[in-house]
Amino acid sequence: MSRYWYFPATLPGLMFGSASPMTDEQFMEMARQALSPSDFAELETCLDISDIGAKEKTYNSRLLADYRAWERAFRNELARLRSRKAGIDEEQYLRQGPCKDEAAAAAQSCFTCQDPLEAELAAEHERWLAVERYSALSSFDLDSIIAYRIKLGIVNRLKNLEKERGILEYSRLYKEIME
User: Fold this and answer.
1) Closest-CA residue to 59 (of 152, 132, 142)
2) What phi-psi label fits residue 126: left (phi over 0), alpha (psi between -120 and 50 degrees) or beta?
3) C-alpha dihedral sign at 133, 117, 74, 52
4) Looking at 23-32, 62-71, 88-97, which range is the least confident one?
């Protein structure tokens, strides 16, 4: 795996719930200049969840492979819990992938939240913790840069959550579903 000694050292620190030091676009522009084309291509795909339910891909980054497997298991468990609560068949919502106990436990803790905002914050926190676990031994390599981008994405999503707007959107969706 490629080593990048300078680029990660120049990135500002991130803390869950803190203000975002930059946009994703700013980060990606910096990364484009610092990373090899193949590593940058991998970095570009790390936030794309459109294929999270698709068959497992091969990644150069071990962190990305582990995190995406965790995310698939996390989403599967959320789908399972929601389906059971609604009394519908869960199989149609599940995607093929490994079962991870830590993802199931994370989904269960998020599912118990009654407030949609709290549930979303809990889900993002669980994602943050998963990235922390999978990147614990990474530094100055592609894995550490991918971890940074995922965490930056979480920080940027959190700043867009507003309780009042969330309540209105939840009410709108609930009404739409019930009709």
Assistant:
1) 142
2) alpha
3) negative
4) 88-97
Q: Which residues pair with 3 in a beta bridge?
A: 141
3-state secondary structure of 130: helix
Question: Tokens at residue 89, please?
Answer: 């068949």
Q: Smallest Cα–Cα separation from 102: which of 59, 71, 138, 64?
A: 71
Tell me: the pLDDT tens digits for 101-122?
889 999 999 999 998 889 999 9
Give this prediction's pTM.
0.85
Distance, in Å, from the CA atom of 104 to the CA atom of 42, rounded to the nearest integer, reads 27
**Contacts of 122-127 spanning 24+ positions with Cβ under 8 A:** 123/74, 123/78, 124/16, 124/154, 124/157, 124/158, 125/16, 126/74, 127/71, 127/74, 127/154
Label residues 126-150 b or e (16+ Cβ within 10 Å = b).
bbbebbeebbeebeebbbbbbbbbb
**CB 14 within 8 Å of CB 148:** yes
Alpha-carbon span 110 to 78, nearest angstrom: 8
Residue pointed to by tokens 């080593």: 3
Rounded to whole angstroms, the Cα distance separating 42 from 142 reads 9
Question: How far apart, in whole angstroms, are the C-alpha atoms of residue 63 and residue 69?
Answer: 10
